[in-house]
Amino acid sequence: MEWVDEPARRTAVLARVDLLVCWGGFAGVAAALALRQRKLPGELDVAQLQRELQAQGMGLGLSARKN
User: Fold this and answer.
1) pTM of the full predicted structure?
2) What is the Cα–Cα distance from 17 to 6, expressed in whole angstroms?
């Protein structure tokens, strides 16, 4: 295994949190919503998750679909 040595640095702590979701997109929003509701992601109401995604500007492409 290869390693990279980095010099020591000082980083400001902006907040202390119980959970930090570092990935974004749909999975990150679902994880945060599930945590807020104290549910597993699979237990979320799909329509509510879609509304949350749209509120955050994440297009679902639903309006472009035709049945």
Assistant:
1) 0.56
2) 26
* d(C-alpha 20, C-alpha 28), whole Å: 10
Number of residues assigned to the chain: 67
Amino acid letter, 21? V
Task: Give the pLDDT confidence score for residue 67 in this predicted structure.
Answer: 52
Predicted local distance difference test score (pLDDT) of residue 62: 64
CB-CB contact of 39 with 30 (8 Å):
no
Write a three-state SS string for the chain. Answer: CCCCCCCCCCCCCCCCCCCCCCCCHHHHHHHHHHHHHCCCHHHCCHHHHHHHHHHCCCCCCCCCCCC
State the Cα–Cα distance between residues 27 and 61, nearest whole angstrom.
16
Judge contact between 28 and 20, C-beta under 8 A: no
36: tokens are: 């807020």
